[in-house]
C-alpha cells in the first residue's frame, strides 16, 4: 500500500514537472519566434530613371533606415518586360501582409518614352519570400467600362483594410482634361485582379492634380500624403478617421526644399516612435530624407543618409533578420560589401575595386593613422568579414575574406592610402581660390555639382590653412532665396578681396541663369548680399554665340585697377569701376585668344607677365583641358606659346576631363598651385555626358621655366603636401 502511494506521488510529481517544462518550452519557442520575426532592418524598393532599362524594380537594404546599400549591383531584381504590358515599370510600393509573411507589391505599368499620357495599367505582384513573385497586369481601361477618356494610371499603392479584411489598392488617374485624382478599389483574395469598380478617394480642393498618394495610419487617423501637380508643386496631406472617405486637406507643403519633388514615402523606424518622410527631388537627381514624430513637423536628415545608388520614387519596408539574410544570400556580393566601406575618412566616390585581380583601393584623408584603421565594411545577417575592426595598413595591403551564406568565400587584397586629390569630398567643379589677408586662410569657391544638367542653385565655400585640410563653411549664396534676377544654374564663381576705407570687403562674382552677378560681404565666408541685378546680362558688341558665364576677377598689382573677364566661346574683359559692383561699359573688349577657346578664363600676374589660362573642348569631354597665353597688359593682345597645353587627361591614372582652373601663389613665396576639376574617379569615364556634372576638385603644383613659360602639369592622385 505504501509503495502504491509513493508511485502515485511520483507520477503526480513527474506530471507536474513535465507540464512546467512543456509550458516553459512553449514560452521559449514563442519568444524565439517573436525574436526571429522582430524587424531589424529595411528593404528599399525603387526604380532608377526614365530610360527603358531604368524603369524596373530595384532593391537596397539597410540596418538602420539611414545607410542603404544596393543589391544585385543595382540591377533589376525582376525583368520588366516579363511582368508588364509596356516593357517598363515605375513607382514600386511594397507592403507586408496582415499575416506577417506574405508580401504585396504594386507598380505603374509604363514606359515613359511613349509619353506621360500613354499608360492605362498597373501590375499587381505577390510573394512569400521577397524573391519569387507572381504578377498580373490590370488594364483599368479594358477591365472597367466607362474609362474611354482615361489617359494615365500612376503610382499605385496597397493598404490592408481591417474592417473589410481586404487589400485596398489606390492610385491616381487622369481622364480627359480633368486633373489627376486618387481612386481606390479592392483586390481579390489571390491579389491577381481588382474585384470592385474604382471609386474616387480624394481630389484636390483647389482643383489641381493630386498624384503619388501614400496612406499612413497614425494615432487613429489615416494620413494621405500626396503630390500637388499643376497648381503648386510639392507634398501635402489630407487626414481622415476612415480609410475610404472623409479626407480633409491640411493646406501646407511638407517637403523641406524649394525644389520640385514627388513620390512621398513614409515608413516608421524600428524600435522608435519616429517616422521618415522621404521623397524624390526628381529635377536634381537626388532623394531627400526627413524625420518626424507627429507626421506634421519634419526635419531634414540628409547629412545622416547614405546610398550607393540613385533611386527614383520608391518605398521602404521594415524586415527581419531571416528576410535580410535571404536577400543578402540571393543578391549581395563580396564586391558590394568591399565597395561600401563607410569610414568617414574614406573618399567614398573614389574607391577603386578591381574584381579581376581581386584588389581594393581605399583613398583616405590626410593625417589618418593607417596603423590602426577600420574601413567599417557593412555587416548584415548572412555576411561574415574577416579580419575586421582596426587593421594595420601602414606596411601594405591586407587580405580581407568576405563570406556570404551559401556562397564560397572571396579574398581581396585591400590597400588604404592617403590621396589628397580630390581635396573636397563630393561633387564640385569650376574652383576659384582666394587667400584672405583678413583671416590668413585659403578659401575655395566651387560650383556645387552632381545636379542633373548643371541645375544646382547654391554656392558653398571651404576654408583651409594648408591647402590640404578643408573645412566646409556652408552655403554663402542661395539663388532661390538670395537672388531676385536669376534663380537657376549656379555656376563658376570668382572672388576678390579689397581693402576699402581700412576695412576688408569681398566681392563675389557668379553665374546665374546664364548671366553674371555680384554679391558683397565683410568676410570671405559671407554672408553675401546680392547687388540686386545682373552685372553682365548681354553679349558684347559683335558676339552672336556663346553664353555670358564663367567670370574671373583680377586686380593689376601695378596699378591697383580691377578687371572682370567672362564668356563661353568668347573671352571678354572690362574694367571694374571703383565700387566693384559695376563695370566701365566703354572699356568692354573681346580678346578671345584663338578659335578653340571655350571658357573658364583665369588671369594672374608673375614677374612682369600677365598670364591667361583657359579651357578648351567641352566639360562633358574626357579631353577637356587647359591652355595658356600671356600678355604685357591685363586687356592686351594675348601671345600663345607653341607648347601651351599645360593640363590634360592621364589615361594611365584614370584621370579625365581636367579643366576650368584657378591659380594661387603662397603669400611671400615663389610657390604656385593650380586648382582644377576632373571627372569623378573612377566612375566618371563610364557615365557618358553625365560625367560633365559629376566632377571633383583637385590641387597640383604649378612650376615655371627660366623664361617664364609654364611647365606641363602632371595631374596626380596623391595631390600636394601641407603648405606652410
From TrEMBL:
<dbReference type="InterPro" id="IPR052176">
    <property type="entry name" value="Glycosyl_Hydrlase_43_Enz"/>
</dbReference>
<keyword id="KW-0119">Carbohydrate metabolism</keyword>
<protein>
    <submittedName>
        <fullName>Family 43 glycosylhydrolase</fullName>
    </submittedName>
</protein>
<keyword id="KW-1133">Transmembrane helix</keyword>
<feature type="transmembrane region" description="Helical">
    <location>
        <begin position="12"/>
        <end position="29"/>
    </location>
</feature>
<dbReference type="InterPro" id="IPR006710">
    <property type="entry name" value="Glyco_hydro_43"/>
</dbReference>
<dbReference type="InterPro" id="IPR023296">
    <property type="entry name" value="Glyco_hydro_beta-prop_sf"/>
</dbReference>
<keyword id="KW-0858">Xylan degradation</keyword>
<keyword id="KW-0326">Glycosidase</keyword>
<keyword id="KW-0472">Membrane</keyword>
<keyword id="KW-0812">Transmembrane</keyword>
<keyword id="KW-0624">Polysaccharide degradation</keyword>
<comment type="similarity">
    <text>Belongs to the glycosyl hydrolase 43 family.</text>
</comment>
<keyword id="KW-0378">Hydrolase</keyword>
<dbReference type="Pfam" id="PF04616">
    <property type="entry name" value="Glyco_hydro_43"/>
</dbReference>
